[in-house]
Amino acid sequence: MRAKIIYFITAAVLVFYFVLAGRQGVTLLSMGTWITVPLGLSVLVLPVVGVWFLWKNTRFVTRANQLSTELEAEGGLPVDELERDEHGRILRESADEVFARRKAETEEGPGDWRNWFRLAVAYHDARDTPRARKAMQRAIALHDGRAVQV
Fold it and tell me: Which of 17, 62, 113, 129 could pair with 143 as two cysteines, CB 3.0-4.6 Å apart?
């Protein structure tokens, strides 16, 4: 729940920033001089890219949560079997051990989105966020029946 609150606060702050930047861009465009028009256009690019990024990220998180809900209903969510240190941080050796099992499962059944979902969780636990995201993107694509890029 805490992560959702932080995400929504961050998104709201970003949207507020996009609106402010957009207003500045429009103001520069309305001045109509040879220097303010290109500046206004360049200022307007940032909110457009930011809104696109925010939309793509929100869609990704929403789809991943939907897969999680579906997998939970099937009883297939990965069980937290990771060992932790005295501060509650996951021990690297434990994460590596679980990761090796999840990777083997995925190699045995590469067409099953469930395996890719669990592999994404294992990558995340092993602190490999880029690969966790790619594995989750693959899980989403397989679930949706879309072609998967290798």
Answer: 113
Q: What are phi and psi of 98, to 5 degrees?
A: -65, -40
Distances (CA, A) of 141 to 59, 70, 79, 106, 138: 13, 15, 23, 15, 5
Between CA 28 and CA 121 the distance in angstroms is 46
Query: How many whole angstroms separate alpha carbon 38 and alpha carbon 95?
Result: 51
Please list the rounded mean pLDDT of every run of 10 residues in the chain (150 residues): 87 93 94 95 92 93 94 89 87 87 94 94 89 95 81
Q: What is the pLDDT of residue 127?
A: 84
Tokens, residue 65:
């949560």
Sequence-distant (≥ 6) Cβ neighbours of residue 67 within 8 angstroms: 113, 117, 136, 139, 140, 143
pLDDT (0 to 100) of residue 125: 86
Looking at residue 21, what is its pLDDT? 93
Domains of the chain, residue spans: 2-74, 92-144
